[in-house]
Amino acid sequence: MSRVKDNGNLAKTVHEMTGQKPVVIDSKDSFNYLMPTMQKLYNLLQPAMTTVEANNLIYFNSSELIADNAYPIQLIEYYHNASATFSNFINLRRNMLIGNGLEPVDSNTSGATATIEFLQRENEYGENLQEIWSKLCFDYSLFESYFLELLYNPTNGLIESVVHTSPDTVRAVANINPNLPYVNEWHLSRNFGITNKVGKNRTAWTGIPISNYNKSTWAQDGARQLINCRRYGAGNEVYSIPSFNSILGYVELDAQLAKYSLNSVVKGFTPQTIVVLAGNPDKKTKDEFVNKFKMKYTGADAERVLFVWTVDNETKPEIMPFQNADVTPMLELLNNICAQKIASGMGGNLELAGIQSTGGQSLQADANKIAVSYNFYYMVHILPMQKQMVETINKLLRHNTLDEVTVITPPLKFDLPNSQPAATPNI
Fold first, then answer.
1. C-beta neighbour count of 40 within 10 angstroms
2. Nearest-angstrom CA–CA distance, 307 and 287
3. How far apart are CA 139 and CA 161, in angstroms?
4. Contact call for residues 339 and 85 (beta carbons, < 8 A)
5. Strand 273-277 versus strand 305-309 pairing type
6. pLDDT digit string (tens) for 211-262?
7. What span, in angstroms and rounded, lies between the C-alpha atoms of 319 and 307?
8. Helix or strand or coil: residue 162?
9. pLDDT tens-digit profile of 286-322?
10. By CB neighbour count within 10 A (0-12 exposed, 13-18 middle, 19+ buried), where does 274 fall?
């Protein structure tokens, strides 16, 4: 809202429309009124990206601060601590992306054996590409992006080993040409956008540089490059903004509703009783009295008493019940709205998140509904993501002249037993 001074235009307009001259409140500064200020939606777009002038590092900012470089960290916090519905959908997407794991397209060819050996080859940290695939599926489920560090054999230029790199540790360096969004160099650091609970933040200005994947420049890049697989969308030419970004406000609301309910039980969020005491002692005396009361009446009830001291020493102590409004219907409504919005933003329904729908249907009807929803969700949402993820892996295999791989996610089926007729007793 912005305060606007009326210079007579509003009164003139009302007079022209109604034919009656309005009464204007007379004051020294004329009449002031409040008018809502319209704001463009694109001004509210989160997450924002800002470029550090010192080294052209592109920050990936959360919705909390203008330049905290903490959007990936915010997603991680939402996954662990915010909404169970959101976390269940992230886990569902990850498990569906993993499928049966990486396997050659045609296992009968002569090159399939070499491909399997490459998938099972361990890097310096004891992980092979088959194990890394599970991590990549989680990264793509949460960030809709993943990174792999490639280490080349300096003799023949083939990719010797592959190392997983979490997206929250990677930031891009802006292209020298401001008209090109393509990244030629990345920086790696585990201190990007680290925030704490008191509102301060500690952000790394730089990291360890590493070149973007380019099969023709591996030697100039020190036999070490970083390859990125990400979902493209309007406005995210450098980093991947997840498709569910628009419902993160409901994920945050879900977390706040849980916090409100917890505070109401544990800390006595609203008092049930008001005790009015005579006199107005000093703070130390008040604290001692309240502490003694809590020691005698322990538990949640002791936390739900509000003490009030009066100035008049002759006032008798009074104990009054505090009538609280029942907010249960509102909380239930908000919980249902959050669950529905999160499911809609993730492209699925509540059954896929483990939330049972109402209606009292039979087990077989619910099972069929879940199976159909699961298979539809895979075909519409998961399969396109899976294809893009596998294509990046195949790009590495083709670099080493190996056969391509694929991933198969079996459809969901329920084999429910048919109902049997009641046994006929023998006479």
1. 7
2. 11
3. 20
4. yes
5. parallel
6. 999 999 999 999 999 999 999 887 778 999 999 998 998 998 888 888 777 6
7. 9
8. strand
9. 777 777 766 655 444 445 565 666 666 566 556 555 5
10. middle
- Structure-token pair, residue 299: 């538990």
Structure token pair of residue 313:
């020493």
Q: Which amino acid is at 214?
A: N
Determine the Cα–Cα distance for residues 15 and 285; give it in Å rounded to an integer. Answer: 64
Locus of tokens 């009302």: 14
The pair of structure tokens assigned to 45 is 């777009």
The pTM is what? Answer: 0.74
User: Do residues 240 and 145 lie in contact, with contact meaning Cβ atoms separated by under 8 Å?
Assistant: yes
Q: How far apart are CA 66 and CA 391, in angstroms?
A: 35
- Determine the 3-state secondary structure of 268 from DSSP: coil
Q: Are 138 and 98 a contacting pair, CB within 8 Å?
A: no
Q: Nearest-5° angle of CA 65, CA 70, CA 71?
A: 95
Determine the Cα–Cα distance for residues 404 and 401; give it in Å rounded to an integer.
9
Q: In the block, which residue shows the tokens 């160099």?
A: 185
What is the DSSP track for 98-120? HTT--EES-TTSTTHHHHHHHHH
Is omega for the bond preceding 36 within 30 degrees of 0, making it cis? no
* Cα–Cα dist 382/146, whole Å: 15
Of 255, 245, 198, the closest CA to residue 75 belongs to 245
